[in-house]
Each structure stands twice: as structure tokens, then as C-alpha cells.
Amino acid sequence: MHFTSERRLADGVLERDFTLGEIPGTLWTPESASASASAAFAPTPLILLSPPPLGLRKTYPRLAARARHSAAGGFATAAIELPGCGDRPRRPAAEQALADLRRALEADGPVSDEIIDALILPLVDEAVPEWQAALDALQSLPGIGGPVGYSGGVISIGVRLAAVEPRVSAAVLFAGSFVPRSIFEEARRVTIPLHVLLQWDDEGNDRRAALDLFDAFGSKEKTLNANMGGHTGVPQHAGDAAAQFFTRHLK
Q1: What is the DSSP letter of 180?
Q2: What integer pLDDT is reported at residue 23 of this predicted model?
Q3: pLDDT tens, residue by residue, 80-134
Q4: Which of 45, 143, 167, 202 would be a feasible disulfide site paired with 36, CB 3.0-4.6 Å?
């Protein structure tokens, strides 16, 4: 991991851009993390903040706001660029699958399992090992340690990571993307506490699939927070509930 820039935000949060090999990312740490690194304080818990597949630059305002909110609760937060997004190399097969998806939606026809698999599964296969490598590097930094949380979408990435990575202790998952059938089977192996956010009127979301996925999770503690509104209309109180969820499980 190589840090490329550093700035102190108005609320004292330290924001540092980094690269991990060819993968760009950003780490936000509260002032308490510096104290933990230099004295006998408990290490700062870490939240992995997975962005939507639009690029870190385009989604920076949303990601930074969530990270600063988490920092106020005593958490460090990190985001990395997803494969094929931002300045990372394009993935021609994924772009073809996305074009096929758009044509199906524009025609008001069903989206086939083949399109969903081609769009989502290769992304999951690439992104999850990258998150694990990022977690290795982040946990080696002074002041960061203890329980790890995961927050965000694409929800299939969160499902796979929660199923295979024992360091992730709790997850906030955003329903709102297409889910391959094989991910439902992986969801049955997820047993950590979950908090799932669902926008009831999300124009691009298969609500029935989101509810079926929630039902498939093997977790004994799982909460579905469903709110009226479209994809980007998550109300503030829903975000506050997600923050309280992490405070319960990571502190």
C-alpha cells in the first residue's frame, strides 16, 4: 500500500488516497486512530466501504459523507475502486453484459439469468480477493485493528465477502442490484449479523429478489430496513440506523 495524498478535513478526519498495486482507494481515519497508534488505546475498528460501480470520483461526495459520519462514531473507513471502474482498465465482457441489460430493460422484457451472471459474477470473482488484499494492508497500519465491518453494494460482493472472509464481523448491505442465482446459495452460508437497506420503489431493483435474498441469509440476526422511495432516496434515519448497527457489533 502506497499513500499518494493526505489532507485533514474540517472535522479532524484524516483523508488519505492510496494505491494497492494498480488499485486506487481512500482511507478515512478519525483523530482517535492517531491516539491509538501512539499510545495504549484500543485499535480503531475498520469499515470497508464498497462503492457503487460508478467510480470513486463520481461517488466521492456520498462516500466521504458516510466515512465522516462513521469517523464521528470512532470508525476508520476505506474504499477501493471496483474492477473496470474509474481509471481502471475496462472489462469488455462486462460492458457487453451491461449493454445487454440496458436493452432488456428498455424493451420492458425479462432480464435473463445469463445476462445477470455475465454482469455480476466476474465482478464478484475479481472484487472479493481485492478487498481481502486491501484488508491485509489496512490492518497492518498503526492504530487500525479489531472487528471489521462491510458496508455497501453491489450486494453480491458483500454476500461473497461475508461468506468467505472470517475477519468481517458484521455487514450493512444495500439491496438494489441484480443477483445471480448462485449468490442465493452463498447467502445461506452467511451467519454474521446483517442490516439490509431496501428502497421499496427502486426502479432498477427486483424487489422480490431482494426479499428472497434476505430470506436466504443464514444469519440468526438480520434486519431489513425498507423505505419508500427510489434508488438514491435512502432517508437519513436509515443511515443512522446502519451506524447504530455497527456501533453495537464492532465496538
Answers
A1: -
A2: 97
A3: 999 999 989 999 999 999 999 889 888 887 889 999 999 999 999 999 999 999 9
A4: 143
C-alpha to C-alpha distance for 126 and 109, rounded to whole angstroms: 29
Residue with cell 425498507: 226
Sketch out the chain's domains with CATH numbers: 2-88+124-250 (3.40.50.1820)
Of 95, 164, 156, 90, which Cα lies nearest the Cα of 121?
Answer: 156
**Which stretches of the chain are DSSP H helices?**
31-38, 56-72, 92-106, 113-139, 155-164, 181-187, 207-216, 236-250
The three cell numbers locating residue 72: 464521528
Strands 23-29, 76-80: pairing kind = antiparallel
**Listed residue (161, 162, 229, 164) closest to 197, CA to CA:** 229
Element containing residue 232 per DSSP (H, E): none
Nearest to 224 by CA among 173, 150, 162: 173
Q: How far apart are CA 107 and CA 110, in angstroms?
A: 9
The pTM of the full predicted model, rounded to 2 decimals, is 0.91
Does residue 202 register a pLDDT over 60? yes
DSSP assignment letter at 145: E
The stretch 163-181 carries a mean pLDDT of 93
